[in-house]
Design goal:
This is Fungal N-terminal domain-containing protein. There is one protein chain. By secondary structure, the chain is mostly helical. It has one domain. Helices cover 79% and strands 4% of the residues. The protein is built from five helices and two strands. A two-stranded antiparallel sheet has the order 1-2. A hairpin with a 6-residue loop joins strand 1 and strand 2. Helix 2 runs antiparallel to helix 3 and helix 3 runs antiparallel to helix 5. The longest helix is centred in the C-terminal third of the chain and has 50 residues. It is elongated.
C-alpha cells in the first residue's frame, strides 16, 4: 500500500514540477509579450490615424452622392479604436518605467493577472483589421464602379454630340 502512495505522490510532484516549469517559461517571455502588445497598439494607432487623415469623399457637395458612405470601414475603425483603448489600459496597468530611457517593462505580477485577456483582444484586433480591409475593398469596388459609369456616360455623351454634328 505504501508503494501506491509513493507512486501517487511522485506523480503529483511531477505534475507540480511541470506546471512550475511552464509558469517559469511564461515568466521569461513576459517582456517579449509586453513589447508585442505595444507593437500591436502602435499598428492599430497608425491605421486609425491614416484613415482619419484621408480627406472625406462623402461630404455633402462632393459630387459623389451615388457612392455610399463606407459604414463597414467606419465600424471597423471604431472597433480598432475601442480595442486600442482596452489594450492601452492593460499596457498602462502593467507598465513599469525601467529607467531614464523612457522604455517601459511589464510588471510581472500585474501581467499575469491580465494575460488571459490579451489573446482575446489580439484576436478581436485581427478580426477588426480584416473587417477594415474588407470594407476598404468594398469601397474601392464602389468607387471603381462609379468611375466606370461616369466614363460610359462621358463616352455616350461624346458619341451623341458627334452624331449630332454629323447630321
Amino acid at each position: 500500500m505504501e508503494v501506491v502512495g509513493l507512486i501517487a505522490s511522485s506523480v503529483t510532484l511531477l505534475e507540480v514540477s511541470l506546471k512550475t516549469a511552464g509558469f517559469l517559461q511564461e515568466m521569461a517571455s513576459i517582456q517579449d509579450d509586453f513589447r508585442s502588445l505595444q507593437e500591436v497598439i502602435g499598428d492599430i494607432n497608425s491605421i486609425v490615424q491614416d484613415f482619419h487623415s484621408i480627406p472625406s469623399l462623402f461630404a455633402q457637395g462632393s459630387g459623389l452622392s451615388q457612392v455610399a458612405e463606407p459604414r463597414s470601414v467606419i465600424r471597423a475603425i471604431s472597433q480598432l479604436e475601442r480595442l486600442k483603448a482596452e489594450m492601452d489600459e492593460i499596457r498602462t496597468y502593467c507598465a513599469r518605467s525601467s529607467g531614464s530611457d523612457s522604455v517601459s517593462d511589464a510588471k510581472k505580477r500585474k501581467w499575469i493577472l491580465k494575460r488571459n485577456r490579451i489573446p482575446k483582444l489580439l484576436d478581436r484586433a485581427r478580426d477588426a483589421r480584416s473587417n477594415f480591409q474588407i470594407g476598404i475593398n468594398f469601397q474601392l469596388m464602389a468607387l471603381d464602379a462609379f468611375r466606370v459609369v461616369k466614363e460610359h456616360k462621358l463616352v455616350y455623351k461624346i458619341a451623341s454630340s458627334s452624331m449630332n454634328v454629323e447630321c
